Amino acid sequence: NAGVTQTPKFRVLKTGQSMTLLCAQDMNHEYMYWYRQDPGMGLRLIHYSVGEGTTAKGEVPDGYNVSRLKKQNFLLGLESAAPSQTSVYFCASSYGHPSSYEQYFGPGTRLTVT
Amino acid sequence: GENVEQHPSTLSVQEGDSAVIKCTYSDSASNYFPWYKQELGKRPQLIIDIRSNVGEKKDQRIAVTLNKTAKHFSLHITETQPEDSAVYFCAATPYELNTASKLTFGTGTRLQVTL
Predict the structure, then answer these.
(1) What does the pLDDT look like over A66-88, one tens digit per residue?
(2) End-to-end CA distance of chain A
(3) Residue A106: what pLDDT?
(4) Closest approach of chain A CAs to the CA of B45, in angstroms?
(5) Residue B48's closest chain A neighbor by CA?
(6) Rounded Cα distance, A5 and A108, in Å
(7) Neighbour-count burial of B13, counting CB atoms closer than 10 A to its CB (0-12 exposed, 13-18 middle, 19+ buried)
(8) Among residues A112, B6, B11, B77, which is most buried (max CB within 10 A)?
């Protein structure tokens, strides 16, 4: 099993450009999440999904959109990138069964917006 | 919403000594408290977690304690080794059955184990 994978690993955007980050998991997890990690601020939840076709806002959703058309994939979109969105983005997934609440993280995508 | 504070931000210990990292949370409904370890350039990985119906949990050299009354929980690492050097994050969430665990993370503690 590959676990949680993310594409791409690195990306540089100019202000105003758009892009989509792809997260894929092969663990048949119901729940998926997108976080951003900035120095000194830990991880902050952007959006999450409780199943195929569902999305919900997290702590810092502004400037991002998400879609979960297939259970195994969770896409994060930036319609008009801003320098404030320079960050490392992590996707995670979890089973949600009471026996295990663990979130499994992907390797991250380092995004720089100039 | 939940607010999690973590201290210290950096911690340096000698190999073989113990390390303690402390977190406080604000939402009394929080009932799940995981700890993640993140090595440089890598993804966060769960090392131990505790639920609110338990006061302490141990896994070899790692232990977590929870004080619900005071709303704080701590990570204890004994007999530290160089491979324990990493950034450690605490988190909290008011987890409910059949819902996503929307974790609120602390700001991290950089642990350096020196020889």
Answers:
(1) 999 999 999 999 999 999 999 99
(2) 36
(3) 98
(4) 7
(5) A102
(6) 8
(7) middle
(8) B77
